[in-house]
Amino acid sequence: MDKIRIRGGQPLSGDIVIGGAKNAGLPLMAAGLLTAGRLVLTNVPKLADIHTMAQLLAQHGVAVDNATNDGRALSIGGPITNTEAPYDIVRKMRASVLVLGPLVARVGEARVSLPGGCAIGTRPIDLHLKGLEQMGAVIRLDGGYVHASAPKGLHGAAIVMPMPSVGATENLLMAASLANGLTTIANAAREPEITDLCDCLVAMGAKITGIGSDRLTIEGVPALHGATHRIIPDRIETGTYACAAAISGGSVKLLGGRIDHLGALVRVLLEAGVEVTQQGDDISVKRLNGLHGVDAMTEPYPGFPTDMQAQYMALMSVAEGAAMVTETIFENRFMHVPELNRLGARINVHGASAIVRGVKQLSGAQVMATDLRASVSLVLAGLAARGDTVVNRVYHLDRGYEAVEQKLAACGADIERIPG
Ligand code: EPZ
Q1: For a Cys staple, 57 with which of 43, 62, 234, 348, CB 3.0–4.6 Å?
Q2: Within its chain, how far is the Cα of 253 from the centroid?
Q3: pLDDT tens-digit profile of 32-63?
């Protein structure tokens, strides 16, 4: 298995291209199941998870073709010949569950493996299932699979989410687009990826109002047509490279990044001593003087993103003073803490909060993490550590960061991939 070796101490300087958002691309690909026409997605990132979703769609009989030579545009379409999402694909990527709503809505049935728990928490899908039941689907759990059927089609419903789940909002939005009648989703998630999905569905002929708010209204239509849609830039990749610039004491330009998608992260970074500003189509990031410890609590968008918690903790581990970092979205998202501590950080976890006491210098070591954002937090810590840091199990990084070592090396980092 590949590893990444980093020798810390070089301030980053230069430009980094921000790719299309993984977490927008995955539901958008699933939306390709909603139409007999072709959905063309552009600005597609080259990531392992995108490849896995393409495999899943192919398994349903739907063709996923490159629409351009550079592999950054996908054309999705074709008849659905199989409604099963098998365990072998779903266990690799939880976002596979996003095919459930589109399949039931379009062909009246789906059999999707239950995703089960994962490294960051139990992550149930009860809200996806309850919403579909309200829309008339009959749900049965059997042999580790969810079987959903609605042979006469789905109907509109008034859905109130007890908590704003990103995935459930996406699944129900897609299902409601083809349901008979009006659906409302109250307390819906408002992440930019949801707005991107709404924009694409509207381009495909869906009737959605309240886009960008926590109350979505969808008037179902009998069929959706093909469309071309550009995926938004990845706000988590943007935030990650902002933290990389900050922890290395450098300054970078993030090409194509959107500050209006970063939510509370911008204010927290500024308080900590990192200036993040939009300059035309790009974002400029500069560490001002010293870094200061600033508390942060993860919340649904536009609050501080849980997907930035690990990277921010790496940054706080070299700040002056202390920071309390509280995780409210997932119950087990601190697996990076013991690994950061192996690099010399001083972090103690108490329930859902971690106290990070800044140290003057981290020191390199062998580390490994069990999820994507935890892995990249170790790369960031390595940029600031004395000596060599070797991050093992790089396949987690490849799920969500395209060419991370090349992007950082182009800005002066001493970093290389060691093929395993
Ligand atoms: C999405 O996951 C993202 N994944 C995650 O990114 C991200 O961390 C998360 O949203 C929160 O922002 C994709 O978009 C593919 P949720 P999702 O449903 O949709 C609970 C990354 O690193 N819940 O908003 O699975 C759930 O357990 C990944 O890129 C239920 O209880 O997240 C969690 O505590 C990791 N029942 C909370 O809601 C349900 O039916 C929010 O989860 C659904 C969710």
Answers
A1: 62
A2: 22
A3: 999 999 999 999 999 999 999 999 999 999 99
Q: Answer whether 98 contacts ligand 1 (Cβ < 6 A).
A: no
Q: According to the model, what pLDDT value does residue 144 have? A: 94
Counting from 1 in the atom list of ligand 1, the atom nearest the Cα of 129 is 40
CA of 306 to the centre of ligand 1 (A): 9
Q: At 289, is the pLDDT very low, low, confident or very high (cuts 50, 70, 90)?
A: confident
For ligand 1, whether the C-beta of 65 sits within 6 Å is no
For 142, residues 6+ apart whose C-beta sits below 8 A from its C-beta are none
The identity of residue 2, as a single letter, is D
pLDDT at position 328 is 97
Whole-number Å distance, alpha carbon 184 to ligand 1 midpoint, is 21
Indicate left, alpha or beta for 144 from its phi (over 0: left) and psi (-120 to 50: alpha). Answer: left
Ligand 1: residue of 173, 261, 298, 329 to mutate (most ligand atoms within 8 A of CB) is 329
Q: What is the predicted pLDDT for the residue at 383? A: 98
The confidence band for 189, taking pLDDT boundaries of 50, 70 and 90, is very high
Diameter of the chain measured on Cα atoms:
65
Query: Catalytic residue at 200?
Result: no
| DSSP characters over 382-418 | HHHEESEEEEE-THHHHHH-TTHHHHHHTTT-EEEEE
Give the pTM.
0.98
Structure tokens at 343: 């690099």
Say what the pLDDT of residue 353 is: 98
* Ligand 1 closest atom vs CA 300: 12
Given 118, 198, 200, 411, the catalytic residue: 118
